[in-house]
Amino acid sequence: MRLLIAAFLSVLLCACASAPGTAPSATEPATESAPAQPTGVQWRYINSKSYEAANAGLGNSHRFESSVGWIDVYVYDMKRNWQPGVGDPQFDDHFRSTIAEVQRAAAQGVYASAKIGPTKDVRIEGLTFRTVSFRLVHSRDGKAYDSFTYLAVRNGKLLKYRMSFNTPAPANVDAISREFIERNVRTGPETPVGTRQLRSA
Predict the structure, then answer these.
(1) What three-state secondary structure class fits 137?
(2) Nearest to 161 by CA among 179, 143, 145
């Protein structure tokens, strides 16, 4: 099972430019924020990938792009039924493992520079997400990215948003992230939707 988890995390690393750092800090209780205001960012659905054929439980991913960056949405269960929100006994270990995997990539020279921000819990569309921010410079091309990971459990499955923004990231990056998640959760992250449904109102 550990090999399957390691393989899945490696796929996540290759699929998106997220960034490493040090161990996450303690989280504070999540509070429900007001709905995001329309940001005007339009997200275009690119494609989907399934990892189930190779390894049952690794689910699928959906890629979206816009003028400010790209987002990968992952839905997977690792062959178990997860407790809602962030309360599952294995949730924290899994969240930390996603950060540790990126840290290993940094140690191997994939990134020229990488810093990790604080970890916190936020509530979006009635779900508690654990989130962490990253600042990353890729070794291959020297490009810098700001990345954000949001992880929660929905309907017994892990729901992960890996959001990467070209630097300098928009000043309202939190609102952009929240707006996308709100709309994606409402429409159903298991089934990708086109640009029209993910546009700002």
Answers:
(1) strand
(2) 179
> In the sheet that 111-124 helps form, which strands lie side by side, from edge to edge?
44-50, 60-65, 69-76, 157-166, 144-154, 127-138, 111-124
Pair 154, 84: CB distance under 8 Å: yes
User: CA dihedral in degrees (86, 88, 93, 99; nearest 10)?
Assistant: -30
Over its C-alpha atoms, the chain yields an Rg (Å, rounded) of 16
SS3 of residue 6 by DSSP: helix
pLDDT in tens, 12-61: 444 444 333 333 444 555 655 555 567 889 999 999 999 998 899 999 99
Structure tokens at 188: 């159903």
- Read off the pTM: 0.80
- For 134-152, what is the mean pLDDT? 91
